[in-house]
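To close the chapter, one final illustration. This time we ask the reader to focus less on the individual chains and more on the assembly as a whole: which components sit near each other, and how the overall shape emerges from the parts.
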Amino acid sequence: MEGSDALLAARLAAGDDRALAEVFDQLAPSVYGGALRVLGNGSAAQDVVQEVFVELWRRPDRYDPAAGSLRTYLVVLARHRAVDLLRSELRRVARQERHYRLTPAEPPGTASDEVMAAETASVVRAAVQLLPDGQRRVVELAYFEGLTCREVASAMGIPEGTAKSRLRLAMAKLETVLDRQLLEST
Amino acid sequence: MSTADRDQANLPMDPLPIALRERVMAASLLARGVGETVPAVPAISADEAFERAADAFYRLLGTLSEQGWKTAALRGLDVQELVGHLTGVEHDTHRALAGDPAVADAEHVESTQGSAVRQAGRSPAETLDEWRRAADHTLELVRPPGGDLAADGCTGRIAVHGIRLPLDDLLVVRAFELWVHDNDIRRAVGLPPSVPDPPVLRLMSDLAARMLPYAAARMGLPPADLRLVLTGTGGGTWDVAIGEETAGRESLAIVADAVGFCRLAANRVTPAELGSHITGDEGRAVSVLAAATTLALD
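The assembled structure is written out below.
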């Protein structure tokens, strides 16, 4: 396949949709697999596959055959998009956490929120294992067990301010860890 | 194991969800239609294409030495006589635009031979000036002051040298011929070949693709559905139906460089020299490419 990457790129640039179908048939399993391993969730991985192939079709000139194979280009693009999606989801969860801390009573989450939270949990869990013990426990209680910062502090026997501080540090570290994992994988 | 390792080890990939392919293709084609090129090439009018080709040809002729003008170029004509041939083509085009039936089926070379040989004894400057004035007059005829060609009766097909085409297509044919002879002269005097401006090349590619069914019919080729992909800036993608609508039509795909394909349509390279990529019956595809060479007027 790599030997014909330049030809495929030229066909894509010429508007040959059959070239896109050929690339999809040959490389979509790798792209999907790469996204699935970062996200741990099939639905989100499918979104990444769509985003990656639409991007390839819309801007085939961004792929330079001299710089590497089309397979590598697409898999790396998929991992970037997957990590972007993950980081975006982490920020959403963090915003939600701040919202809960400011709300006296726990508001009932919607079904989609709960599904998304469950999906996110499975993805973040691997990265969380790399955190120092104190920060990891805060994240586990806050995200996987759904405790508020006050409850986390109480469960761990630490001041609430310390729990918040650890959570902030953990969030920053998670993003760094995910970035490093991406770089290593490329 | 990373995905790259897994790929290299040829281990099974994660199974793709059903319907993802259809979803991705639909989303992609919403973002950009079939045949839309990247980068996009600005659309220009056919008369603009002719003018650009004429300007490029004029610039080339301006660089030639006295000896260059006397260099053998094509069909036994030297460069000066070849320019004379092109002057003759412009004069016949003027007559066709005026509705003169005498030029409709005139033979392209024979009809202009008088203009070619008339250059003997003239200076290159005279030959160049006569051709430029003839080309400019073509533009004047197709660009009436009011900008309304219909008022001048130019809405129908124009018949000249055995071809009958709408005016716009005829002007692209004229641009095509200027570019082809530009390269004949370059080859004769040892200059590198030229490539048309992308918008001009796009019009030339499009015309050659649209003319393929007629060329194939002349050669008696059997019906086929052809996907023609011309690569490079100025190329594009065309689905060309060859022959009658019948069941069991052959499905062919030809991918070739756009400039190379235009050289093929000008009969300046052979199908083998073109270096195309073929899907389907190779013999049938080569026959289509061979038919394309018959589009040339020379």
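Chain B touches chain A through 38 residues (CB under 8 Å). The radius of gyration of chain B is 23 Å. With these observations in hand, you are ready for the problems at the end of the chapter.
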